[in-house]
Fold this sequence. Notes:
Blueprint: H1 3-30, E1 36-40, E2 46-50, H2 51-56, H3 63-81, H4 89-103, H5 124-139, H6 144-157
Antiparallel strand pairs: 1-2
Amino acid sequence: MSKEKLELEELALKKEQAKEREIELLLLKANESKEESLLFTSDGNIEIRNEIDIILDKPIDNPKEKYDLYYNVVRKLLRKYLPKGKNNEVARKPIYEEINTYLTRGQRKDKRGYRHADSRMAYSVDYKELVNILSEWAANSRNVYGLYDRLRDLNKSKGYGVSDMEK
Length: 167
C-alpha cells in the first residue's frame, strides 16, 4: 500500500472518530437533567423549581373520573330514560351517534362504521357539559327528539357537522 493511501485512510478514520465524538457529546448534553431551574419569587428570594411541576400545575384528566362519568352517569342515564327494546334501537342510535361525536370532538363514523376515536377518553370538560345536558333532559322533559335535537345543534355549533343519517 502506498504512503498516500495510508494517510488518506488514516485521515478518513480520524474524521469518522471526530464525527462520532461530536455525536456522543451532543447526546450526553441532551441527556443532562433539565428538570430543575432557579426561580425568583415575588419577595425576592431564589427558589429551585422543578420544571415538571410547572407543567403539571395544569389540571390533568383523571381516568377514574372519566370511567365513572361514562359508565355511571352518561350510559346509566341513557339506559334508564331512552326507549328500551329492539324495536326502539333505531331511535337510540342517532342519540348515541351525536353523543359519541361530541365526546370525540367531531369524529364521525366512517363508511366502514369506524369512528377512529374513543369517546370514553373524552376531555373532562366535555363530559361535564354532556352530563349537564343529560341531567337537565332527564329531570325535565325526557323528550327523545328534544335530546337528539339539542345534541345535534351542539355538534353543529362546535363545527362537528351532521351525521350520515341526516344526509
